Amino acid sequence: MEDQEMQLKVRRVSDKFTESMYVLANEPSVALYRLQEHVRRSLPELVQHKTDMQSWEEQSQGAIYSVEYACSAVKSMTNSSLYFKNIDSLLRQAIGIKEQISNSQGRRKRTADLSVLKEGGEKHGSGM
Prior knowledge:
Blueprint: H1 2-79, H2 81-127
């Protein structure tokens, strides 16, 4: 009886050992299967994130270029203050000359109107 019990215990131990060895032998393949499953599920989402990031990068690069261009334009405008002062001076001169011309034309017209009135008055005065 002890032999049968001993054989039974040995068989149980060997079966458990065999089962453990089988699980250990197959464990890497199960892990690799799980890893493959995870990659298959998450890869499309990762690809979408990558394309989104590339699109955002392109938009950011465009915005950065626009800002740099605007900054250079502002810097060139500050360097051109001398030109704006010169333009201001020339415009003031042009306005002054225009006023002089308008005034002289107004005087001529008044002088011409007065002479026409004098001539008309002399004609009427001599006719009466």
